[in-house]
Design brief:
This protein is α+β, with helices and mostly antiparallel strands. It is 29% helix and 23% strand.
């Protein structure tokens, strides 16, 4: 799901009398629901990747194991899943379809099927996992001991992700700087696949990490899983969040910095139509109160209340009045900058206000990206001489 990008272009003269135009909005792309892979009694694939436990499997899943209660049953399946085990054989005394229903197992980017037989009140069951490319690669990035369980192509994907990490992450970077570098690499080098998003059913080429890394094109799910994998490789705690954006199915991330969680939506920060080597920061490290103006998560596993590392707050780019915005713009112009990012806080920016701020500054025109009707909007101002 991609948000519309609003633009205002205007000519400037001494008294700011000139033309203005509003180009047609960018067509909205829709990710649609995540791919559902159903087998008999299988999970729907629509939630985030598994827990980030990096311990090796303690259970030998080549053997038949006895589980004696539903909690033990779920824990056994979770351990197998987290370690990319394909087949689990269980003996379950006092079996019943309600307590041992695999539809109650956590959903994710995998399918889970079961088959077996019941003798008396004891079930002898085989449970089979089928992992998506994104799930398998992401797990191996979080736990390198799982690398040998990947296909050759998936192992190559991990190597490519490591190369990206090594390219953009340098010694001495803070966690915020690492996150920003990974965010910018994706948004500057990849593009949102509007054609795939418009289809009734989105194929795996648009949703999985491996084709995303190769083709540099995909939809929200590929963005979110790739960002998580890069964060895992860089020592950052990151999770997948699913839900909706403006009413359409969507995926984004939650990241932990200095012990607090933040929402980050790399997909929505990649402009449409694509502009190579260009990033937006509208959805970079938002608290729930801000992102929930457009996003609704399917669950609230991570509570995000901090705003210290919000891009605009951290970099002093927030204006709550005409005077504060004028001072911010003047400061950037004095440093010779012609591209200025800022966010408003309870202040509706008008073309008249902006014209006054830019009068007699030596610019002939400007272009403003953002929604001027939003008192809490983020903007990019480009000045032309």
């Amino acid at each position: 799901m991609k948000k519309h990008k609003f633009f205002i272009a205007a000519c400037l003269c001494a008294c700011f009398c000139g033309c203005s135009s509003m180009p047609a909005p960018v067509p909205e792309a829709t990710d649609g629901a995540f791919e559902t892979r159903q087998t008999e009694a299988s999970s729907e694939t629509e939630a985030e990747t598994a827990s980030d436990d990096t311990a090796a499997a303690k259970t030998d899943f080549t053997q038949v194991h006895t589980v004696t209660d539903p909690e033990m049953f779920m824990a056994c399946l979770a351990e197998a899943r987290d370690n990319l085990v394909n087949t689990v054989q269980l003996k379950i005394p006092d079996y019943n379809d309600t307590d041992y229903d695999i539809h109650n197992f956590e959903r994710g980017k995998y399918s889970l099927a079961s088959e077996g037989k019941i003798i008396g009140d004891t079930a002898y069951m085989t449970y089979t996992f089928d992992y998506s490319d994104s799930y398998a690669v992401s797990r191996a990035c979080a736990d390198p001991s799982l690398l040998d369980r990947l296909s050759e192509q998936q192992q190559h994907t991990v190597k490519s992700l490591e190369a990206i990490r090594d390219l953009v992450i340098t010694d001495g970077m803070s966690d915020y700087e690492k996150e920003l570098a990974l965010h910018d690499y994706i948004t500057k080098n990849c593009s949102y696949d509007t054609e795939a998003a418009a289809r009734d059913k989105i194929d795996s080429e648009a949703t999985n990490i491996t084709p995303f890394i190769v083709n540099k094109k995909g939809v929200c799910e590929a963005y979110a899983f790739t960002f998580k994998a890069l964060c895992d490789l860089s020592g950052l705690e990151c999770h997948i969040v699913t839900g909706t954006m403006d009413g359409t199915s969507h995926a984004w991330n939650v990241i932990k910095l200095d012990g607090e969680y933040y929402n980050v939506d790399v997909t929505a920060d990649d402009p449409v139509p694509d502009t190579p080597q260009h990033s937006c920061y509208t959805y970079f490290n938002l608290p729930d109160a801000d992102i929930c103006r457009s996003h609704v998560p399917s669950s609230h596993d991570y509570i995000c209340t901090a705003d210290k590392y919000n891009y605009f707050i951290y970099n002093g780019l927030v204006a709550d009045s005409y005077d504060s915005l004028k001072a911010l713009i003047d400061s950037h112009i004095s440093r010779g900058e012609t591209t200025i990012l800022f966010r408003t806080k309870g202040y509706i920016l008008t073309s008249d206000d902006l014209g006054k701020m830019l009068s007699y500054k030596g610019f002939t025109s400007y272009a403003l990206m953002g929604d001027p009707a939003d008192p809490y909007g983020s903007y990019e101002l480009q000045l032309n001489k």
